[in-house]
Amino acid sequence: MTGILVQGVSKSFGETRALTDASLAADMGEVHAIVGENGSGKSTLAKIISGVLAPDGGTVDVLGETPGNPCHARRLGVAPIFQEMMLAEQLSIAENVFAGSDGLLCRTLSAKARNAEAKALLERLSGQAVDPTARVSDLPLHLKQWVVLARAICIQPRVLILDESSAALDLAGTERLHAEIRRLRDGGACILIVTHRIAELVRIADKATVLRDGRTVGTLSKFEITEQNLLKLMSAEKPPAKVQLDPSKTARSSSALVLRCEALQLARETTPFGFELREGEIVGVAGLDGAGHAEFIRTVAGIDLPSSGSVTIFGSHGQSIEIRSIEEAGAAGLSYVSGDRKKEGIFPALSTFENFAMAPYGCHRDRTGLIDAGSLRGSFAREVARLGIKVGPPNDRITSLSGGNQQKVLIARAFAAQPKVIVLNDPARGVDIGTKQELYRQLVAFSQTGGAVIYLSSEIEEFFDFADRVDVFVQTTLHRSLPSRDLSEEALLYAMFGRLADAVSPITVEEMA
Amino acid sequence: MAVHETIPGVTRPFPLAWNLEHKGVVFGAAILIALCLAGAVLVPGFLSGSNIRSILLLAAFLGLAAMGQTFVALLGGLDLSIPFVIGSANIGLAALLGAGVPALPAIVLIVLVGAGVGLLNALLSFSLQNQALIVSLGVGFTLVGLSQVLTSIGNAYGGNVMGAVPALLAHISAANGTTFGLPVPPVVLIWVCATIAVSFLMRRSRIGRGFYAVGGNRIAAARLSISAFRYWIYAYCLSGALAATTGILLLGFSGGGFVGVGDSYLFTTIAAVVLGGTSLLGGAGGSTQTVIGVLVLQVLTSLLVGLGFSFAAQQVVFGLMIVPMVAIYARSPEIRLQI
């Protein structure tokens, strides 16, 4: 039985054409993946199917009807989860899970019943004890993600749409999500997944629709879904080659120190540790959810103060500057890029160009001290060309770009401030593989000119062939530092779970789930 | 400004900041022209020199006060103390002059006090988790009460202060005033020059661009070392100083101090900002757009007066006008998708 049938759909935002000719056919009892590079129209297609956006042309058929608005889609049994986490932060977990399930004046469930149900559902999903009355704003990112998922799952959806919904989850969490997806599928629901994690969808998808530049370029059945086939369809050219490491990268200990942390304690009663970053070094930072790697990144960038210890940046003439705020870090030549674009990256009301220009204003001033617009535009043009950003007219709002291209603009902004150190906090969250490869290439080029990079990622595959070493955090302290020659998925996983590689019983992915 | 440059896929020139607000400006200008045409047809003498001059004169007072409100609105705040600062500055200056203080020091003092009130607004509203609305209202109430108490010491007329206004001040704000021989009151010229200077600086200076960063996304601005607190102080101090200036100029216009002179500015400064298209959520708009809002309001007032509307009836029209304007801006697709 056909669940979703989309034919020849097109959609434009101003002058940006998000979809030109998209088609998709998904049956009930099927896990269907939508795959494509950044800006290929995946999220737009998901929004059209869930009734959030109206298509400019073409037909949409969901369970026999055309969803006119999100409420209509909900009545049909469509539960969408979008890239942006939409939660009522001031309400409790249970209230968020059951949001929208009540009538105008009467509650369908007592507070007690919904607390119990929300608790059971969330504990099953997150695998940890949950207080259903806790306020959502106090939760860590991965639990918020589970609340969003629980809200969709609790209405027993016939069509579940997941747009990058595993981005905030760690490996074990992703496994639990997959189990949940399989359970829904076996119950006859249709699940639509939008994801960049190719390894993930190879495992779970029954069928995949590949988009390129707003057009459906192919549909793959279960046995055709391989990384190679997907990459071939997604990019018009051959799959991008892996980043070539500079052979001179092995001997770094001789180059100058640019950043040092001494006796750093990220929280009280945790083990203090030291950290050093040298010119031309790319250091990966990894850990399981809540292991302290995110706190470390924020402390190095001057956003949070450490519980004790110091972060010092060394200037070009050897002078040392202690970092106590992001202003001091910025002045000392540190740029920070966050993967949470919406919250701490973009200025939604401003244009692409103005978003870019906000950081490098200081570097482009004429003799009177005013902003030199001409030189700034030149810098914008250079960075856009270098990073291959698909911008529409630079005067359009940045929100008219896809998530991945917004991220590229933010990375261009960090480069344009001419930093010595770039600190990236999971910048590739929800970004496609082509863009990632491009980003790695840029960071390697930056390091070859003497720049230093600290790179946090929640996907361990990101570090291979790119990082000089990966520092793994466990229990809010630096646990192990793995040099690139020792880097393997296995070694990283061992370290992240707090074990040494030569520990007695090797763990497997199945065991973790 | 508009340098032509070719970027792959981009052939249009792009000036630094104007572009996005384009549509709002065109729309506002269209309303303005329509109102002028309606006035010309319906009200005899609407486009006469003296009527245009009086429209511009009143627009200049409102324009200076609304410019301050624009700074605050750009950050996503509102300054409700403006009418009270205007009234207090008005009687405060009259009282100082009456007490024999020379004009120039008195004026400088009043402007500084206005900026000081703004500083208080900024400090209080920022530390009290941005309750700008009620804080600025409270500060304004306190101020207007205090200034009435102080000026009524030794006489029985709190709220009204009579006295001689310096000739220069009266000339600057006179309806039939001339500037360098031009038949335009000097205060209009002051307003125009201030607007041009502010618009230029908002586009071309780092601090000017910072207003848009802080108003658009405070956390993202903080990550770029742009401190919201500092801008909060800039905006409220400018707003306070501009409100005090308006109060001073209104003294020159009326010739006597009256504490209620600023009352109508509570609604009109906010209305002018909204009509111009500056988002009250912050981050978009600017003082150039507010000029259009100011002109629309003043031309409409003049039209309604010409048609014989009472003050109460004018209020009805103003109130009704705000709703569709906000609706039009809020329904523009970029903002709708954002919300």
Automatic annotation (TrEMBL), chain A:
The lineage of its organism: Bacteria, Pseudomonadati, Pseudomonadota, Alphaproteobacteria, Hyphomicrobiales. The keyword GTP-binding does not apply. GO terms for molecular function: ATP binding; ATP hydrolysis activity. Coiled coil: none annotated. Transmembrane segments: none annotated. Residues 4-238, 251-500 form the ABC transporter domain. This is Sugar ABC transporter ATP-binding protein. PANTHER family: CARBOHYDRATE TRANSPORT ATP-BINDING PROTEIN MG119-RELATED, GALACTOFURANOSE TRANSPORTER ATP-BINDING PROTEIN YTFR. Keywords: ATP-binding, Membrane, Nucleotide-binding, Repeat, Sugar transport, Transport. Belongs to the ABC transporter superfamily. SUPFAM superfamilies: P-loop containing nucleoside triphosphate hydrolases (SSF52540). The keyword RNA-binding does not apply. It holds the Pfam family ABC_tran.
Automatic annotation (TrEMBL), chain B:
It comes from the Bacteria. Keywords: Cell inner membrane, Cell membrane, Membrane, Transmembrane, Transmembrane helix, Transport. Signal peptide: none annotated. One of its GO terms (cellular component) is plasma membrane. One of its GO terms (molecular function) is transmembrane transporter activity. The chain crosses the membrane at residues 24-43, 55-74, 106-126, 132-150, 180-202, 231-253, 265-284, 291-309. It is found in: Cell membrane. It is a multi-pass membrane protein. Pfam families: BPD_transp_2. Its main location: membrane. InterPro entries: ABC_transp_permease (IPR001851). This is ABC transporter permease.
